[in-house]
Amino acid sequence: MSSYHLIGIKGSGMSALAQVLHDLGHVIQGEDIDTVIFTQTPLEARNIPMYSFGSAPLSTEMIVIASNAYGDDHPSVVRCKSLGLPIHRYHHFLGEWMKNYTSIAITGSHGKTTTTGMMVHALRSIEATCSLIGDATGRGEADARFFIFESCEYKRHFLAYRPEIAVITNIDFDHPDYFSDVDDVRHAFEEMAAYVGNQLVVCGDDVQVRLLRTGNKMLYYGFAEHNELRAAGLAIVSGGVAFDVYWRDAKLDRFTIPVYGRHNVLNALAVIGVSLVLGLDLNEIKRQMATFTGVKRRFTETEWKSNVVIDDYAHHPSEIRATLEAARSKYPGRRIVSVFQPHTFSRLERLLDDFAHSLRDADDVFLCQIFGSARERAGSVSIEHLRERIPNAQLISENTVNSLGTYEDAVLVFMGAGDIQKYQQRLVRL
């Protein structure tokens, strides 16, 4: 048993890691901002102590894990260094820790969290599994064989990992504060692929994925016929989507998932592909996937008056398209209203026109002020630049969100990676 202190414990990955280590019997505490965040709920459920930055009690036997969101000059990091405590960055600690397991990394520009959640839900029924999901859900199990985790490409942090199997859901241009263009992103994934021990399971429908150059074995999945694992015959059924799965042109079975959108069928294919690589019981995988209800802040639905309110983490044009497509497929004939909060100035500036085009898939569009980040608090772009590119788009604030109360039988889709939830919470209190 070890004693761990986590700097930035409320971060989604850090919170999940704290839960894993706690479940395995270690002593955990952490420090962070005082603002209440949904990521702290599972920490509170485990009675893990959380302190304000700078106020945590420290002892010489503690191992410190620092979030990548805070640099070496952060006062809490400086304080731990001054006490001589060993400090490990989140990704470096995780890279060493996972060596004790058959590790399965889920990476890609979009869809990581849902695919990781679906993978964990399916495989845990067959083998004891430790898991770390990007919605701040972590779980440790004694004698686990598998470790399934969300692997982030930002700043090439995923190069610290050596997974046995890696899923690549897609490759897209994102994080423009770090990557220069989509080629730079693809090259990062090529570097990552070189560190995979056994097999890559990748979306063969994605153009950039098809351009990957790697000597590792690759299992391609998707809808196109050139994929060795593919889905066909999609149909909206009661409570979800049904589809046939073909493996090397032989039909395996018809699967059903209780979530919507073509992107979720691709996520399911990734799970099936990993199961084939591991030689798992597909009948059990099929049963488990039929009960997957999603992950936090990914198409999370509540009813409000006569409307459906959806909370979703979508913060990139590709994710917005996928979320709105899923909303239309589940609620055909109903008015789709998007309420979007851009996250980071650099992302909005570099992808401005693409954001505008993706949001036009909604019937009505409302825009919130840009949510910055700890590393980027201002920029040369404003929400007005986006509004003027979308016909009839309107600006909305916490004080005016009650204007959405005039909708009836509509689907209100709140999207963003910042604090978009405060707008939703203000509305549903009406």
Mind sketching the topology for me?
Layout: E1 3-7, H1 12-23, E2 27-32, H2 41-45, E3 50-52, E4 62-66, H3 75-82, E5 87-89, H4 90-97, E6 102-107, H5 112-123, E7 129-133, E8 137-139, E9 146-150, E10 165-168, H6 182-193, E11 199-203, H7 207-210, E12 217-222, E13 229-237, E14 240-247, E15 250-257, H8 262-278, H9 282-289, E16 300-304, E17 307-312, H10 317-330, E18 335-340, H11 345-350, H12 352-359, E19 364-367, H13 383-387, E20 394-395, E21 410-415, H14 421-428
What are the defining features of this structure?
six-stranded mixed β-sheet; globular; 430 residues; 30% helix; ten-stranded mixed β-sheet; single chain; alpha/beta
User: What percent of the residues sit in helical stretches (DSSP H or I)?
Assistant: 25-40%
Our Rg estimate from Cα atoms comes to 22 Å
Shape: globular
Q: Strands across the major sheet, in which order?
A: 8-7-9-6-10-11-12-13-14-15
SSE class: alpha/beta
| Low-confidence runs | none
Alpha plus pi helix count: 14
Number of strands: 21
The overall average pLDDT, rounded, is 93
For the terminal residues, how far apart are their CA atoms?
A: 49 Å
Strand content: 25-35%
Describe this structure in words.
The protein is an alpha/beta fold and 430 residues long. Helices cover 30% and strands 26% of the residues. It contains 14 helices and 21 strands. It has helices at residues 12-23, 41-45, 75-82, 90-97, 112-123, 182-193, 207-210, 262-278, 282-289, 317-330, 345-350, 352-359, 383-387, 421-428, and strands spanning 3-7, 27-32, 50-52, 62-66, 87-89, 102-107, 129-133, 137-139, 146-150, 165-168, 199-203, 217-222, 229-237, 240-247, 250-257, 300-304, 307-312, 335-340, 364-367, 394-395, 410-415. The strands form 3 sheets. A 10-stranded mixed β-sheet has the order 8-7-9-6-10-11-12-13-14-15. Strands 16-17-21-18-19-20 form a 6-stranded mixed β-sheet, sandwiched between helices. Strands 3-2-1-4-5 form a 5-stranded parallel β-sheet, with helices on both faces. A hairpin with a 3-residue loop joins strand 7 (129-133) and strand 8. The longest helix is centred in the middle third of the chain and has 17 residues, at 262-278.
